[in-house]
Write a structure and sequence with these properties.
6-stranded parallel beta sheet, Dihydrodipicolinate Reductase, domain 2, alpha/beta, 383 residues
Length: 383
């Protein structure tokens, strides 16, 4: 029996668009009998980006610089959209109104108002499946940590620390790009760019912040513009959000610290989560992507235990369990979760993509963080 095909269109053909296309090109890597995504259309204003796709995907039926032509096509079932934050609101709304399922990049709107407008259209079109991207929880060792959390092995939570650290902006000669421009990236700065990644697991566990105190830093005040000039760099480079949250398993309050940093010396691309509890603790970091670290509290003497987790992914693959798992594998697993959602078999993947509601929670947190930094006060949030 021939497997169902899901015809995908990509809007935004840069780094993430190529990653998406590459993932679905090797779909045979997955030992999965669900639907098969295939690249049927591409869209980008910069036609120079088209060549790699056309050279490698002969099945592309639509190549256009007008996204409306793509989303109005009967030959497209779903869209992966990876465009700058200031374009999210209108393009996401148009995709949903056109009846196309959407996997969109975070933060789902440049600000809270844009996110609210997207959410209104989602509620008007319940037949359309909408998800937000976040890859890192799909590392097998992180999936082990998630299962550990679901089993409540921590007892009562003391503290959770979740973060995403980059160091590429340590190069002060690096030319400015759209992620460093408030009018395109948004006032959230590094929070809008990195924050949803850090919040995927906490939100899924029900750890929604009830208050936040924010420490935001603008370190690189100017950058080269690539044309021989120096221009202001107005976005936040680093953010540390100290939050209070309530664990629904125990009803008890705990500290949730969220870190998003573009200037973190020594961290090329490090995503991590650390969970500390009265009965047990656990942590995962992409610095050591095979390692699941945990400890069981027994009196005052404790020690960390490390399990080397191989390539045992949520959606099984051809890769042997003894081998390594990387970012491209995590990205493919994320798409697999989206495809299962489209097929009505979302429960086959134990960890769903970020939901639209979770993006709204992130906007509430980041907006409150801006107010906290501006006023120097802790800001209360709705639980």
């Amino acid at each position: 029996m021939e497997r169902k095909k899901i015809r995908i269109g990509i809007i935004g053909l840069g780094l993430m668009g190529r990653e998406f296309a590459s993932s679905i090109a090797r779909w045979c890597h997955l030992l999965d009998d669900g639907p098969v995504p295939e690249l049927a259309g591409i869209c980008d204003k910069n036609k120079d980006t088209w060549k790699w796709y056309m050279d490698n995907f002969p099945g592309i039926a639509i190549a256009t610089d007008d996204y409306k032509s793509l989303i109005e096509s009967d030959g497209i079932d779903a869209i992966y959209c990876a465009v700058p934050h200031n374009l999210h609101e209108q393009i996401y709304i148009d995709i949903i109104k056109a009846g196309k399922h959407l996997l969109g990049e975070k933060p789902f709107g440049i600000d809270k108002a844009a996110n609210e407008n997207i959410m209104k259209i989602i509620s008007d079109h319940p037949e359309v499946i909408v998800c937000c991207s976040s890859e890192f929880p799909y590392f097998p060792a992180c999936q082990t940590l998630i299962n550990w959390l679901k089993n409540g092995k921590y007892g009562r939570l003391i503290e959770v620390r979740a973060g995403f650290h980059h160091s590429s902006d340590m190069d002060l000669a690096k030319p400015i790009n759209w992620k460093r421009m408030v009018e395109i990236n948004g006032e959230y700065g590094c929070m809008g760019d990195l924050g949803m990644h850090t919040l995927h697991i906490p939100f899924r566990m029900g750890w929604k912040p009830v208050s936040v105190f924010a420490d935001l830093q603008k370190i690189a005040e100017t950058r080269p513009d690539g044309k021989g000039n120096t221009v202001p760099c107005k976005t936040w480079d680093n953010a540390v959000l100290t939050c209070k949250s309530i664990d629904p398993k125990t009803g008890k309050e705990f500290s949730l610290v969220v870190e998003t940093k573009r200037m973190a010396p020594g961290a090329t691309n490090n995503w991590f989560i650390k969970v500390y509890g009265t009965e047990g603790s656990a942590k995962f970091s992409t610095h050591n992507p095979k390692a699941f670290d945990y400890l069981t509290t027994s009196g005052k003497e404790q020690g960390w235990t490390r399990i080397d987790v191989g390539s045992q992914s949520a959606i099984p693959s051809i890769t042997g369990g003894i081998f390594e798992f990387g970012f491209s594998d995590a990205f493919q697993q994320m798409i697999g979760a989206f495809v299962h959602e489209l097929s009505g078999n979302g429960t086959l993947n134990p960890f769903r993509n970020v939901t639209p509601a979770e993006t709204t929670w992130s906007h509430e947190l980041f907006t409150a963080a801006l107010e906290s930094h501006r006023t120097g006060r802790k800001i209360e949030l709705q639980p």
